[in-house]
Design goal:
heterodimer, A: 115 residues, mainly beta, 7-stranded mixed sheet, 0% helix, 50% strand, globular, B: 114 residues, 6-stranded mixed sheet
Chain lengths: 115, 114
């Protein structure tokens, strides 16, 4: 079965540093998403991306965050100046809008630790 | 603030029993509802979606929706130890809300004892 792949699986960074989390969505999918889950808390929506632009974003997705689809396969989340509270598991997801059930396929996640 | 509420559990059932998981949501305009399973340290995996009032069955799983009561439930029949996981209820907010903009509950941890 096709899958969403995320790299790296773990990322450790110092507070104030920039990080880029990478994702390769399923090839024929058109919608891409980033979610995050702080340890022991809810999975939270960050941003959705369609047709090379952000279609929706949450309050969490402030100016420190950006997303990009630099080529035909990768989808990245950049955090410009990381804070301790950015420590979380970040999940990328993709979906095919032509399929009923709006099924999101999640990647295995990147565990970000900000020290 | 739109909310999805779940009892965090843990819910413990013996193998072979029916597990019943419940969820309430605050946005009366929501139209799409989902149950995800999340094993510890893993990503969420969709197990059921439901859009209309009533029941929807898929194998050992039955989702139930009552929009008037703003209530969604998941029944797991013949529970197996491999069903032990956290079950996340998720809702797309508002009528015509963007696909994939899911609001998740905190999840109910289910433990199935052999």
């Amino acid at each position: 079965e096709p899958e969403v792949t995320q790299t790296p699986s773990h990322q450790v960074t110092q507070m104030g540093q920039e990080v880029i989390l990478r994702c390769v969505p399923i090839s024929n999918h058109l919608y891409f998403y980033w979610y995050r889950q702080i340890l022991g808390q809810k999975v939270e929506f960050l941003v959705s991306f369609y047709n090379n632009e952000i279609s929706e974003k949450s309050e969490i997705f402030d100016d420190q965050f950006s997303v990009e689809r630099p080529d035909g396969s990768n989808f990245t989340l950049k955090i410009r100046s990381t804070k301790l509270e950015d420590s979380a598991m970040y999940f990328c997801a993709s979906s095919d809008p032509g399929v009923r059930d709006e099924k999101l396929f999640f990647g295995s996640g990147t565990q970000l630790s900000v020290l | 603030q739109k909310e999805v509420e779940q009892n965090s559990g843990p819910l413990s059932v013996p193998e072979g029993a029916i597990a019943s998981l419940n969820c309430t949501y605050s946005d009366r305009g929501s139209q799409s509802f989902f149950w995800y399973r999340q094993y510890s340290g893993k990503s969420p995996e969709l197990i059921m979606s439901i859009y209309s009032n009533g029941d929807k069955e898929d194998g050992r799983f039955t989702a139930q929706l009552n929009k008037a009561s703003q209530y969604v439930s998941l029944l797991i029949r013949d529970s197996q130890p491999s069903d032990s996981a956290t079950y996340l209820c998720a809702v797309i907010e508002g009528y015509g809300g963007s696909q994939g903009n899911l609001i998740f509950g905190k999840g109910t941890k289910l433990s199935v004892k052999p």
